[in-house]
Predict the 3D structure of the following.
Amino acid sequence: MMVGKTPIVAVAAMLLAVVSVSHAFTTVSPLVKIQSPSTPASTKLYMADMVTNLRCEWISAALCTNQTPRSADVCLVLGCQDGRPVTFIPRTIETLITSTVEADGELPVAVRRQLKQQEKTRNASVVSMVDQRADDLKETKDQSVDVVISLQSAAKMKENGLSWKKSVQEAARVLKPGGRFLFVEQSTLDGESYLEYVGNLGTAIVKKKSDQETSDDGDDDQDMPEVYPTFECMGYDDVDLVLVPHVASVFVKSEDAGLTEADRAKKESKVEEDRLAELSISAFERGMKKRRRKKKTLKDATENLSDRIKKQLVLGESLLEFLYPDIFIDTFCDACPMCSNIMKEEDIVSGWQQCDFQDFTTACPQCSHRFVPQFKVSCSSAAFEGSQGPGTPLYCEFLSPWVLRKELGHIIRGTNSIEQILDPAWRSGTDIRATIWWNLITMFKRYQLPFSFLLQGSFRNRLINPVPQD
């Protein structure tokens, strides 16, 4: 009899372990609650298929964390069902707006409780608990949101009588041009692909005609609206190892959404004028440089530095190499996503918007497309934590001095002030703190400024001592 019971005991232990992991990872999800006999079939399937639930949860966390732009301030959740969004989105988000999958448009009390708990625990973004249906965002203004996320809510909308298609349309309405739509949803709903519906969503623009342009024969062909794509797909992938097919994707709202043909032509003409103006300025600058002597090399520039600065630069490079063996900061690894032009460090620096504390982008000198640049930090130490885990390179957003100043201002005004930046543990991860620290190193090296004080937390002895005056 004991032999026959052994498999049952083992299976029970495995189920208890899985449930413990799911509770430790996130707040209690409605998908794992005890349901009444009237529970919809799709919800019962999620309860039985815990692998799908947990797998989608991991994908959702990674998607929100990695694909939310650092410059984004406002995020809206389509069909908020628990407190997960507060945990998933980066701390750079200032306001999180809710919507519900309930037919009455009211956010359930349990969801409010979880959101408040996560907001208090994380002490990050402010949660704006708005009672509005996910398919009717009546409390949210047009083009007022930077990011919209939809995490396994479309199927729940369908069960509760809401329209998941209208929720996508509402997301397009409230998103700013250039805003992002992130989702992890069931692949097909009502026999239609969720991914294809978002990709095929268009904005209809009807050109208004004057009375003189109206034809006498009653031909209405010219009155047909012109449809332009609303979203541009930045990438998608199927969620594997699940029983219920799901898809994860990132869409960006078109900068030209809502513009007529005349507006588009005017905008393209303006872009072309700016491009020609930049070419003229570049040609003029090249002509001026020919009349000057050749640009000094880094070695020549170093010779003009004082001995004290030289010693500090050498000390900083040596200490950095000691802490990070074979350290290599590659600022030439990025390319323009539009024309594939390899961006040099000088190109990235010249493409920054001067004195703009909110713009994380640079401009490609070849096609003028703006995007968020990156640089790569690699190290031979096995303990070095990169973007893909220990021993892998770390990819950081290349921040302008003005954006870096803004981020440092947030840190200095916080607890422990500047001292936390000197702590090695503060820069050891892969989040915004590591990005800020390596941007400081990169900027100091670019302008030949001593940076050994940034390494003080890794050494007991003082690295910078007062030098007696001669």
User: Anything to note?
Assistant: Confidence is low (pLDDT under 50) at residues 1-37, 293-299. The chain is about 40% helix and 15% strand. Residues 424 and 458 are 6 Å apart (CA to CA).
